[in-house]
Amino acid sequence: MMKINKKGFTLVELLAVIAILAILMLLVTPNVLKLFNEGREDAFVTQCESIWKLAEQEYMTNTFDPEKKFGPYCSENEDSKLNTKGGSDSLKYYISFDDEGNVNKLLVTDGIYYYNGTSVTSLNNIKATKVPDGKTPTITCTNGTMTGITD
Length: 151
Fold this sequence. Notes:
Helix content: 25-40%
Number of strands: 7
Radius of gyration: 26 Å
Mean pLDDT: 83
Strand order of the largest sheet: 1-2-3-4-5
């Protein structure tokens, strides 16, 4: 008589494991997506801070050279673009200074988040705001305005 080898899983056991995995995925996915979105938001704030620091550095360098223009700096104007050395092309910015060399306007957008700040006193004040669905923010260099968000 031949002996049957019963080393395997039954269909019910496999379905139970698949059901448990599906439930775990439903519980974990929102948290993973939240972490992913927070990471993107933090990256945007870091980019804003980098633009701020780079503009301050450029401003201080050009303050002592009367031949050079120092601010405002704008990504949409080749004459006043900061050298971001391989920075993201999707990042648009405008940053200007007051007579004392303090940042008085900072506009930054990457199409997903934006920051629109006037009389900015500290890097700690920069907070990302999500661009509303269907809106495309644009920055105008001539007057330092951001449009397309609340229109």
